[in-house]
Design a protein that fits this description.
With 177 residues, this protein is of the alpha/beta class. The chain has one domain: 3-Layer(aba) Sandwich (Beta-carbonic Anhydrase, Chain A), CATH 3.40.1050.10. It is 42% helix and 18% strand. Strands 2-1-3-4-5 form a five-stranded mixed beta sheet.
Length: 177
């Protein structure tokens, strides 16, 4: 006996959003967004990073292209989170010598780190970490805009980009501008 919910899902997918978030095990995209099966197309990786277009082939780039060009999602949400280990590593990259792929991946957050250092040079370490989490969301949205399908669909109003930070301590979502 097939359940109606599974019957509908077997016909294909039509998610309302591409949700890009960190692979941190404390995050649950469906709980954060209060969505069910089939409502989100999800990319998870260390630091909720989206490499800029032209930086090589990778899973995140391919998933963005598929979500926008094929699934025609109307929304993309980049969701960072407080206490992000990837952002802590971006602030202290010296400890990454033994994990070269992680080190290279975290370099995609470097423009965000430089921005925080330039705009807010006197922050204490905890405030700097949190500021980097927020600025990294902004940086990843900027990176998304370099992707041709994203640029084309946002230009004609068929795609909306949003930035969020999930506050792990409070269990709430904060918008990022």
């Amino acid at each position: 006996m097939k359940l109606p919910q599974f019957e509908a899902m077997s016909q294909g997918q039509s998610p309302e959003a591409l949700f890009i978030t960190c692979s941190d095990s404390r995050l649950m995209p469906s709980r954060i967004t209060q969505t069910g099966p089939g409502e989100l197309f999800v990319i998870r990786n260390a630091g909720n990073i989206v490499p800029p277009y032209g930086s090589g082939v990778g899973g995140a780039i391919a998933a963005v292209e598929y979500a926008v060009a094929v699934l025609e999602v109307p929304n993309i949400i980049v969701c960072g989170h407080t206490l992000c280990g990837a952002m802590k590593a971006a602030l202290q990259p010296d400890g990454l010598e033994t994990v070269p792929h992680v080190r290279d991946w975290i370099k995609f957050a470097e423009p965000a780190r430089l921005t925080v250092d330039e705009l807010r040079p006197n922050l204490d370490p905890a405030a700097r970490w949190r500021a980097l989490v927020e600025q990294n969301v902004c940086q990843q949205i900027a990176n998304l805009k370099t992707h041709p399908w994203v640029a084309a669909r946002t230009a004609v109003g068929r795609l909306r980009l949003q930035g969020w930070v999930y506050d792990l301590e409070a269990g709430r979502v904060l918008g990022v501008r």
